[in-house]
Amino acid sequence: MSTKLVSPSPYMVTAVSLLELAEQVSTAAASISQHLRSKSLNEPNFSPTSQGLPKDPEIENAKKSLLVASKALTVLATDPLTHLREVFFGLNESSALKVAVEWKVAHILSTAGTPMHISELAKKAGADEYRLLTAMRLLANSYVFAEVRPGVFAHNFSSIHLTDRSTECFISYCMEVVYFASEGYSESMRKHGSSTKPNEAAFNVGLNTDKPFWEWIHGNPDLCERFNECMKPMGASSYARLRTVFPWRSLGDALLIDIGGGNGHITFRIAQEAPDLKVMIQDKEQPIAEAKQLCPDSLKPRFSYRVHDFFETQPVVADVYFMRMVLHFLTDENCVKLLKSIIPAMKPGARILVAESVFPTPGLLPNPQHKYVISQNWNMVTLLNAKERTFDEFAEIFYAADKRFKLRQWGESGGAPSSEILEATLPDTSFVESKL
């Protein structure tokens, strides 16, 4: 077993005193500011046009230090009981976001940032003025929208994204499904204990259904459509990092099987990055049909498709078997079953590439950049009785499938959604040739 080592950050937070944390905030901020000036880039601000800090490896360590130290400083400056209450009241902010989405507030406000009084905003939304004001002030206090004068609101750098349909779908889906599923978490611990059955999750308790999550959501077309829509920006965010953590061009003219590849939106991009790569997408009939329609004309000669149940023996001999955001939906037992289904088709030199979020090792202080994968782990347990995994936990399921597997990690744990690559190889692989 081997893993790609990450050099220690010169900005690693090691202090917990107020002054030392403040110094680390100042040092990191100065480093970022200097870098932006050297590149003639603007610093981020709260205006609707601000794009935030660039995704630049040269400032990534300083950005991490700034986030960790500033968050710790804020918490230490807050009364402990007040901090506990703020954590709890996060559910109010989620509910207020649902109000903003359902009453189309982001679409009513000018995207250019022109302010609007709450009376006019409520009239255009058809909402009660005071109740809408209550929701807007709660959001503005968390830097979503800006209350530029008492009762007068405008878009800011965050709220402008509520005009995106994918963001609207994400919020409405989470509030209608994940919120109620989460309410069942504690009760499911009492009722089902350590069960890993997909129909004995917190989701089943919270939404009072015996159906597993996937069966249930596919039986609700509107929710299913919103779920698929809200996954799109996550795919874009994931690929932005995936393209840099693995040398896709080095695959040459290999055949890559995209197992559970959905509509192909990730491997279409990988194929553009690796111009000689050939790809076969394997999935159920509906996503395969969608992938065929979405495939760019320039890529069609290099793409093929096959309807396949990935728990069945892999029928195609290939150079690379690729899975993105597949294993985190599965229990350990089913992960092993899936991996075992691939092994008979693996020829000498073949490899499995898994794109997932690798659960990070906790540091001295919580890292806000790890919030996504930690929250996603909650969602996987809540909805599916599945989970995100550490590198060692991934190693365990690979070794359970075949003790000969050698595993390597590309990319630092805890990054963007599903943007680390685990590369698994089998030495001296024996396989049975099969036909397409």
From TrEMBL:
Protein name per UniProt: S-adenosyl-L-methionine-dependent methyltransferase
Molecular function terms from GO: O-methyltransferase activity; protein dimerization activity
Signal sequence extent: none
Top-level taxonomic group: Eukaryota
Keyword Methyltransferase among record annotations: yes
Residue span, O-methyltransferase dimerisation domain: 86-154
Domain O-methyltransferase C-terminal: 213-401
Swiss-Prot/TrEMBL GO biological process terms: methylation
Matching InterPro entries: COMT-like, COMT_C, COMT_dimerisation, SAM-dependent_MTases_sf, WH-like_DNA-bd_sf, WH_DNA-bd_sf
Keywords: Methyltransferase, S-adenosyl-L-methionine, Transferase
UniProt organism field: Choiromyces venosus 120613-1
